[in-house]
Amino acid sequence: MSTLHIFSKPLSHYCINTLENLIDSNHAVLLVGDACYNINQFKQFSATLHLLEEDAIARAISLNESDIHISYAEFVGLTLSAQNTITW
Amino acid sequence: MSTLHIFSKPLSHYCINTLENLIDSNHAVLLVGDACYNINQFKQFSATLHLLEEDAIARAISLNESDIHISYAEFVGLTLSAQNTITW
Amino acid sequence: MAQFVLSLHTAPTDHDTTQRLIKFAEACIAGGHTISAIFLYQAGIFHASNHLELASDELPVKQLWQELSAKEIPLLLCVTAAEKRGLDTQDTGVFTVAGLAEFAMLASEADKWVQFK
Amino acid sequence: MAQFVLSLHTAPTDHDTTQRLIKFAEACIAGGHTISAIFLYQAGIFHASNHLELASDELPVKQLWQELSAKEIPLLLCVTAAEKRGLDTQDTGVFTVAGLAEFAMLASEADKWVQFK
Amino acid sequence: MKNVLVISQHAPFDDQHIRESLDMALIFAAIDQNISWLLSADAVLALKKNQQPELLGIKNYFKMIKTLELYDVENIYVCEKSLMDFNLTKENLIIDVKVANFEQQRALIAQQHQVVTL
Amino acid sequence: MKNVLVISQHAPFDDQHIRESLDMALIFAAIDQNISWLLSADAVLALKKNQQPELLGIKNYFKMIKTLELYDVENIYVCEKSLMDFNLTKENLIIDVKVANFEQQRALIAQQHQVVTL
Questions:
Q1: N or C: which end of chain B has fewer CB within 10 A?
Q2: Which chains pack against F, by 3+ Cβ pairs within 8 A?
Q3: Residue F3 pLDDT grade (very low, low, confident, very high; cuts 50, 70, 90)
Q4: CA–CA separation, A56 and D36 (whole Å)
Q5: A4 with A32: CB under 8 angstroms?
Q6: What residues make up the domain containing C102?
Q7: D116 touches C: beta carbon within 8 Å
Q8: Does D53 reside within a domain?
Q9: Mind listing the pLDDT tens digit for each residue in A17-65?
Q10: What does the pLDDT average to over F90-111?
């Protein structure tokens, strides 16, 4: 059980220099909303990123095989399998 | 006549990598509100920074000789002597 | 089956966050889970305004809340956050005025608290 | 002597920005300048709410606006910004409901436009 | 006639920042001022092609951006560095824009009577 | 009893972020939960000594922060790096806090049932 980190804005929105050190490599990272635009910005946090598929498609984001595209049912599942959830 | 740039938050609040290149060294920079806490963060923009004195004092910021402490009357004067004003 | 509380921190002008919270809530219910409260906090309290006027091609914010309310999900808003922001707390539509303590109780009894912003 | 327009973009919960705009406006007047409008835009429109309830040791936001209004500074708010945020535009106290065009005219006639946020 | 510049830096669906920037640009054009719009940082994403917010139930305001030309708002500038940051080129955008490096952006600002960030 | 963590990252007078964080911490203490508060980035400035917002007409909410101990909110953590960024030390702060490096902050997060950012 680890933490699920949720981001909804591009990375520039966040206090990156304090944030990057709070995310463990075994934590799950989920990008929703405008955070989906540039997935690469968040690669430093975790090799595997979860993307809310619906939000990514609406933004014309090409889905990459190395990322995990999830539905709302899976979003609910991610929060349940995590110890806790942080929406940054 | 140049631009007056006004900041009211600590630097982490801003899109620094696009912003720093928009401020010319001959532009005036004014720190108000929470931007007064760490004057050094803004030194990269201009060697001389203007501080709204009232805001700095309320935040227990020690006034430095290299910075210019201004009153509200002088704040009005700065906007008048500038070609234009940008509140970031 | 799990018990959720959800909190919404963005104003009704943030249509993107609004639709996401609502779809998440629907997915919780569809998955057989319980939502003990959706709580409006910070700028989120403006969702309880009865003066939202949106064009017909905008996200139908008011209607979406009515649909969630019909599913018997408790919709609460923080009275302190509302008063200092100038919301009329006498007229909050499908939302119920609550204290922060009431929400904190629900949050501490819930399995999961998910914030939307 | 110069002609100013000021715009306020933060909600009344941002007491720090509020007091700064008001002191700047007072300094303009004291310096013999004219303010053709203080315009509420974005979250600033909530300053025109008649339901702000603040404790007596908080910044007296409502009173400060009344004082500025008494100095005959036109206090305007953007109707479009207000409607989509859920402000009751029938009851805006010392503020006058205006269109964005009206403000843009004043801004283009003014010598200086200073934003507060 | 005044030179007025709107600067946007927020992401496309971050509250109403881009939509209110667009409103401001259109209004100044309507009253015959010399309006320019500079999109920088995350705001450049608002010009990305093929987006369909209606799939989320959200109004497709990108269609309104396309009408800027009809209203004679021709001075639309995009920060070159920000485009690169998001791997975008002029060809990926829904409207014809002027791609501006920092020097050009500074020159643009220097020409303005009023500058507003939204 | 649940472990609940409030994380604050905003500057002291940026809207009501810190005040609402404080309210949240106090409420969870009042209903006997195991509450912790982590101040990081610009939020550490809210603990700086000798500030007098009443000079600006603004309520001095820092006095309320000092009452946290009375209400048994003892787990107040401050990000070590953020303190250094603002040239502050424990001695410059209005209350007794636990200065936490990143590893300690990660351990703190790992212990929580609920985490809220305000």
A1: N
A2: A, B, C, D
A3: very high
A4: 45
A5: no
A6: 3-47+60-116
A7: no
A8: no
A9: 888 899 998 899 999 999 999 999 999 998 789 999 999 999 999 888 8
A10: 97
- Buried residues in C3-32 as b, exposed as e (16+ CB within 10 A): ebbbbbbbbbbbbbbbbbbbbbbbbbbeee
Instruction: For F21-43, write each residue's pLDDT tens digit.
Output: 999 999 999 999 999 999 999 99
Residue of B2, B18, B86 lying closest to E79 (CB–CB): B18
Asked if the Cβ–Cβ distance from C16 to E58 is below 8 Å, we say: yes
Predicted confidence at residue B66, as pLDDT, reads: 85
Sign of CA dihedral F37, F87, A22, B18: positive
Residue E86 pLDDT > 90, yes or no? yes
Note whether ipTM > 0.90 here. yes
With a cut of 90, say whether residue F67 has pLDDT above it: yes
Q: What predicted TM-score, i.e. pTM, was given to this entire model? A: 0.97
The per-residue pLDDT of chain D, averaged, comes to 98
Sign of CA dihedral F80, F50, B10, B3: negative
Tell me how far apart the alpha carbons of residues D11 and D88 are, in angstroms, rounded to a whole number. 15
Q: Which of B34, B75, B87 sits opposite D115 (nearest CB)?
A: B87
Contacts of A86 in chain F (CB under 8 A): 7, 109, 115, 117
Amino acid (one-letter) located at F37: W
CB E44 within 8 A of CB E79: yes
Mean pLDDT of C70-95: 97
Whose tokens are 């835009």? That residue is: D41
Q: For the segment B14-64, what is each residue's pLDDT rounded down to a tens digit?
A: 988 888 899 998 899 999 999 999 999 999 998 789 999 999 999 999 888
- The answer, yes or no, to whether B and C have at least 3 beta-carbon pairs within 8 Å is no
Does a structural domain hold residue D90? yes
**Number of domains into which chain D is organized:** 1
* Residue D85 domain-assigned (yes or no): yes
Share of chain D above pLDDT 70, in %: 100
What CATH number corresponds to the domain at position D20? 3.40.1260.10
| Residue recorded with tokens 């100095």 | D71
> Is D69 inside any structural domain?
yes
- Angle separating helix axes B72-81 and D15-30, nearest 10 degrees: 80
Say how far residue F79 (Cα) sits from the centre of its chain. 10
Residue C78 appears among annotated catalytic residues: yes
3-state SS of chain F is: CCEEEEEECCCCCCCCHHHHHHHHHHHHHHCCCEEEEEECHHHHHHHECCCCHHHHCCCCCHHHHHHHHCCCCCEEEEEHHHHHHCCCCHHHECCCCEEECHHHHHHHHHCCCEEEEC
CB contact under 8 A, E42 and B18: no
Binary contact (C104, F117; C-beta < 8 A)? no
Q: Which residue of chain E has the CA closest to A9?
A: E11
Q: Which residues contact C90 (CB under 8 A, 6 or more apart)?
A: none
C-alpha–C-alpha distance, residues D61 and D59, integer Å: 6
The whole-angstrom distance between A87's CA and the closest CA on chain C is 6
pLDDT tens digits, C20-33: 999 999 999 999 99
Class of domain F3-117: alpha beta
Phi, psi of F37 (to 5 degrees): -130, 125
CB < 8 Å to E33, chain D? 104, 108
Report yes or no: D39 and D103 within 8 Å, Cβ to Cβ: yes
Q: What tens digit of pLDDT does each residue of E2-49 get?
A: 999 999 999 999 999 999 999 999 999 999 999 999 999 999 999 999
